[in-house]
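Suppose a classmate hands you a notebook page containing two proteins, each written out with its sequence and a corresponding row of structure tokens. How would you begin to make sense of it? This section walks through that situation. The first entry is reproduced here exactly as it would appear on such a page.
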Amino acid sequence: MMRDTNRAASGWINGLIGVLIFSGSLPATRLAVAGFDPLFLTAARAALAGLLGLAALIVFRQPRPRRDDLAPLATVALGVVIGFPLLTALALRHITSAHSIVFIGLLPMATAIFGVLRGGERPRPAFWLFSGLGSALVIGFALGQGVTAAPIGDALMFAAIIVCGLGYAEGARLSRRLGGWQVISWALVLCLPVMAVATLLLMPPSFAGIAPSAWAGLAYVSLFSMLIGFVFWYRGLAQGGIAAVGQLQLLQPFFGLALAAGLLGETVTPQMLASTLAVILCVVGARRFAAAPLTRGENAR
């Protein structure tokens, strides 16, 4: 009993650390795209994190994934290594990070939906009610902000949420058997050849004039957002249960809005806060009717 309690507590701690790290991703990306092209940024962050992930797999002598793991790992890679970073980087050229963070309130719901689709669960009708209401709130927020001023940015953020939700769901399933940090490391390694070549091809002719803040943003999204955050996040999901620890992600919009205001000096309006809170309440309801706890046999590694 004590062991289960300690394991659950460890899962909550690891999950909270992961959410805190991810909360800085959009503000850091906003800083990075001020100096780097979004395509170069996406390739460079994945290549740098991939080299670190490869080194960790070699040092700790991790066995290669099975052949039937390759397709799920490719899904994780396309969702969280390539899709989400690229789409958010492109979006942040059109909208502020404070605006984009409100969309992150849909990420837990997207993860739950893909968990339902991939896991074959049968949620109650209340789940779809909360999911639809949450989506309507986010769309209403975008329209209220003047979607005609930056429709591309909003569309890119919606696409980013979809691919990231799919990547999270696949990663959570794999982490039960492969281990949390191993899943993200293998996904990064899978992309490494392409991302390394893309980094060299997309590299700017000169790095002169790039502000230190842009370099800091690149360093953060490469080391923390792309690798370290997933180490804590997937470990937390495996230790404390996807349903329970996954709800910590609902705090991410609040942490992100605070960072956007404190570090970037962006304006956080009462409407943004109200929209974020309303979406979070909807996601809480949706997750309650959709998620299922891990079994005892699904251990973290």
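The notebook's second entry, a different protein, reads as follows.
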Amino acid sequence: MADRPEVHSQASQRDPNARPRRDMKDVGSEDRFSDTSGVLFEQAMAQTRMAVCLSDPNLPDQPIVFANRAFRRLTGYDEDEILGRNCRFLQGPKTDRAEVSRVREAIENEDVVVVELLNYRKDGTEFWNALHLGPIYDAQGKLLYFFGSQWDVSDVRAAREEERHARAMARELSHRIKNMFSVISGIVNVMGRVRGVEDTASEINSRIHALGRAYETTLDEASVGVIDLGPAVKAILEPYAVDERVKFLGNGAQVPFSAMSLIGLVLHELAANATRYGAWAEGYDGQVSVDWQRRDGNAVLTWIETGGAPISGAPAHSGTGATIMNRMVAAARGTIEREWKPEGLHAVLTVPIEGGNT
């Protein structure tokens, strides 16, 4: 559309309220809105950082009749390049026509609409414009203007795109990790049968499956390099079918992928021991409380058993699982403290972590 400044003089002759408005410091007394509300509006529009414009639907091609300073800064156009023009001059070759159609329909129906449009500044640079458009009526219900507020959301859109890419990468990583665990498990089973050590292969596979469960619940949605600890803990313990015999007390802590491997294996060993000798052993109706927190740069997991088989003290010898667990914790510069109380095992795992959110 061509710029048609002559529209303003015609509009002024018919309706003084349709005259182009300027920022407060530039408005003479003859150009102000007719009442106190108008003065307040002009002052607010002059000071706000949000780009605002008014268009007149009663004039040919609905020209802009007011644009505040923020609108000019956002678009790079001067006032005389804006007033009298339809707002489509901000559109360009990549502007989504479907979103433009939504704006057109809202105008035709005198409705409110919020869209994100790819617009263009005077120098040709692109920006994403969050446009809020709605009608303004007088006291008699006559449509006077359409109000439009614009907000540059280019950074927000870029962040969304980065997040979508990260999520796609996380889903691909999840798929590959699951395949890797499946392949490793198959190799262990075959080697166990070939060498006649099926029981040992079964124990190894139980640990592989525990690792897989630690990741698969949350990895599909992870996009910032961390895993939600709560869902992972619950997924690891789910195969033990102890729904009513375990209490989860942890908060929404997150941990890096690297920490999850160790936490998953430790939980597996604790749960396996509870099933064989502790709170979940056959013939007992014991309970386990599992707590997890992030404290001072560490992930702290607390495991408390009650009501299981009686304990007279620490076992005389450490089993294979405990040995594996101790070595992995030491390699990660963590600690695991165990206390064999008469009512059951109390264990606290502390794993140093970097990054992650509480």
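A careful reader of the second entry would note: The first helix runs from residue 6 to 14.
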